[in-house]
Amino acid sequence: MPSIFRTSTGRTTYLRAYDEMLRRWPRPTLRSFDTALGTTNVIEAGDAGLPPLVLLPPVAVSATAWFPIAGMLCRHHHVFAIDVVGDAGRSSLVRMPRSGADYADWLVECFDALDLERPAVVGHSYGGWLALRLAVGHPAAIGSMILLSPASGLSPFHWYAGLFLRIAERLPLRPSARSVLKAQVHRGYQLDDTFVALMDAASAHVRTQVLFPTPLGDDELMSIRVPTLILIGEDEPLYDPAAALERARLLIPNVEARLVPLASHLLPMERPGFVDAAIESFLDRPISAVEAA
Questions:
Q1: Any idea what the CATH number is for the domain that residue 89 is in?
Q2: Does residue 88 lie within any of the structural domains?
Q3: C-alpha span between 245 and 250 (Å, rounded)
Q4: Which long-range contacts (CB under 8 A, 24 or more apart) does 275-279 make?
């Protein structure tokens, strides 16, 4: 497979921006290992004696994008944030996945390499779609699942959002990262300059090679048995948040699905304290209480 980087110079520029973003993390370490899809990079942080928590990021931002909430999560968890193979980050792709099932298999390989047994998994946007694929394909591999603004898995994108996401990298004049991000946050939110620089570097130098996320079927959602928390911002711009939450409540057996006020698509950035508290409250509840929610 060709590199995700457009040029070797671009790779250097992007990884410099990645490392700058990584400085916002609490004492992170990097780990990498080989999988069937490629070499996978993981940002590890937090006390190894704490319960494990796996973080799956949105597309084109890398695992470093969890920086606003990483310090909060590390107070209670041993955090493993995974760079998705074929996407922006330090992972590399050797074989293009054919389906969501391939991503699920890849995540199980990651868990095995990290010696994780049924960890809790948090997925944001594209990471939420990956978590859903894992819960369907390997239900025994995951303990609890938290989905933050999951991309397309519960409800299709608005047609204009889907079209833009499909062709964005092929546009001769791509919009700036700041303009793209401003369309995905609650009005008045101040974007982080270091994160904007990372996104600009990704836009200029990275050619993502990932599958486009599509909604899961009714049977697939009904097969999910893992306790699940879903948080979607009230101003979600990519799809209808009410329709996504309603479908989740209707089809996923053990689910708590909530609309988050004063938030759009970038929940961990816009409402880090709220998201951290919701995750901790959810994971602290007995499974029987979650199933009854």
A1: 3.40.50.1820
A2: yes
A3: 9
A4: 275/69, 275/148, 275/231, 276/69, 276/72, 276/73, 278/146, 278/229, 278/231, 279/73, 279/122, 279/146, 279/229
3-state SS assignment for residue 200: helix
Phi-psi region of 212 (alpha: psi -120 to 50; beta: other; left: phi over 0): beta
Structural domain count, the chain:
1
Rounded CA separation 39/33 (Å): 5
CA distance 284 to 292: 15
How many Å apart are CA 41 and CA 81, to the nearest integer? Answer: 9
Residue given tokens 């410099």 in the structure block:
16
Distance CA 240, CA 212 (A): 18
Q: What would the two tokens of residue 131 be?
A: 């978590």
**Global pTM exceeds 0.90:** yes
* Residue showing tokens 């009005």: 187
In a domain, 107, yes or no: yes
Residue located via tokens 């519960």: 154
From CA 126, how far away is CA 213, in angstroms rounded? Answer: 7
Rounded percentage of the chain residues whose pLDDT exceeds 90: 85
Mean pLDDT for the chain overall: 93
Note whether residue 112 is domain-resident: yes
Contact status, residue 251 vs residue 216, Cβ threshold 8 Å: no
Of 184, 274, 211, 272, which is closest to residue 84 (Cα–Cα)? 211
201 within a domain of the structure (yes/no): yes
More confident residue, 163 or 40: 40
pLDDT recorded at residue 180: 87
Supply the range of the domain harboring residue 230: 8-292
